[in-house]
Amino acid sequence: MTSPAVRGRGRVSIPYAPWIWIGCPPVFPEGLDRNSWAWHHAQEWWANSGREHGEPEVRLLAMILAGMHDYAYASLPMHQGLIHLPEIGLAPLLVSFGFWEAAGERTAQLCALVHADDPDAIQPPEVTEFATERLGLGLKSLAYTRTDVTLSAHLNYAWRSEELGTAVRMFTACPDLGRLHRALPDIEQLARLITINPVESGSS
Asked: What is the number of structural domains in the chain?
């Protein structure tokens, strides 16, 4: 499945495996709203799990998905989202995407997108290069913040296409460091599938 979005002169495509990811779109297809979208995906996820379940399990997952969607688009600088949920027993994890016009010096914009100088980090973020065959060389950062007694990890990636004038940010955060570590292979596999393609004539 693919979720496209347009920024700059590029259309960003994110192919994803529906048995690993649940699409968390900014707008819903005709006939769906947030609650019906969440209920549909909760039913589908449990049906595909092969595990015994009933309405209470579906209702709980639907409530979680709806709450995550509401928070995501009200509070985060994102244009598209995917929810990582490959198996029973894992908490759903939101991975967000922002699509921006390429602006200013390349490295400076990438550093800004991965929050390389995050003032809330308890120590300077760990920033490394991260390349994919489709997007070329980008940046990755890992930072930690603390709120009261909660330690959270923040993972960011960013790439930029000079040709198409488009920058992409992929990011997530989680207070369960083990949960984020479990998702990391799937997140980085997803990163390697992202493409930026020319906007076709008439696209918006």
From this structure: 1
pLDDT digits (tens, 9 = 90+) for 119-171: 999 999 999 999 999 999 999 999 999 988 899 999 999 999 999 999 999 99
Give residue-wise pLDDT tens across range 51-62: 889 999 999 999
**CATH code: domain of residue 76:** 3.40.1000
Round to whole Å and give the CA distance between 145 and 71: 19
Instruction: Look at residue 171 and tell me if it is in a domain.
Output: yes
Average model confidence (pLDDT) for the chain? 93
The model's pTM: 0.92
Range of the domain at 179: 2-195
Q: Answer yes or no: is 203 within a domain.
A: no
